[in-house]
Amino acid sequence: MSDNGKIKGRFTAGDLRKESLSGQDLSGENMDFAYMSGGNLSEVDLSSASLSGVVMAGADWTEANLKGANMQNSDLRDCVFKGANLRGADCTSALLMRANFAEANLRRANFSGADLQFAKFMGANLRGADLSGADLRDAIYDEETTWPRGFKPINHGAYPIKWLPDTLIKDSGLEEYVVGSDEDDD
Fold first, then answer.
1. How far from 78 is each of 107, 117, 148, 183, 185, CA to CA, in Å?
2. Whole-prediction pTM value?
3. Distances (CA, A) of 162 to 14, 40, 125
4. What pLDDT, on a 0 to 100 scale, did the predictor assign at position 3?
5. What is the 3-state secondary structure (H, E, C) of the chain?
6. Which residues contact 110 (CB under 8 A, 6 or more apart)?
7. pLDDT for 185
8. CA 148 centroid distance within chain
């Protein structure tokens, strides 16, 4: 650990399976090709870090700071990015199937060529994000989700959460994102 309390170390191609880096300041670190599936990265600061080619499937990134991070070609399937800051992050060609981006800041993030099938975008801010060539089939969003200007998620295979059956919403723990049913609109 350095004098400023920031952990310093060589993470490149390291095996950090199920480790916890929660709350650590790792801004600017090079963690290319690290393996950390199932790890706890909640509230970690990895702003401007290089995470290219990492395998971190199922990791918890809740409220992490990934502003400007390079996450190209990374395996981030089933990750939780709830409330995380990925503003300007480069997620080109990343595997992000079933990722939860609820209430995340995804402004100007680059998701070109990324696999975002079944991802959850409730309340996420995607203004200025690059979604060219991204696979959004079966991704879900709500009325609070902000998309890039002119982007129509339904034309890319995503659909609003209100279209899901109530049983699926309940079984998936998504009740907090459903404002109300159409029957309440008398």
1. 21, 11, 24, 33, 35
2. 0.85
3. 42, 31, 19
4. 42
5. CCCCCCCCCCCCCCECCCCECCCCECCCCECCCCECCCCECCCCECCCCECCCCECCCCECCCCECCCCECCCCECCCCECCCCECCCCECCCCECCCCECCCCECCCCECCCCECCCCECCCCECCCCECCCCECCCCEECCCCECCCCCCHHHHCCEEHHHCCHHHHHHCCCHHHCCCCHHHCC
6. 89, 90, 91, 92, 129, 130
7. 40
8. 16
pLDDT at 151: 96
The tally of CA atoms less than 13 A away on the side-chain side of residue 2 is 8
Q: pLDDT higher for 116 or 35?
A: 116
Average pLDDT, the chain: 87
What distance in Å separates the CA atoms of residue 19 and residue 171, rounded to the nearest whole number?
28
Say which range, 18-27, 85-94, 148-157, 165-174, has the weakest mean pLDDT: 165-174
pLDDT in tens, 34-49: 888 888 999 999 999 9
The length of the chain is 186
Amino acid at position 179, single letter: V
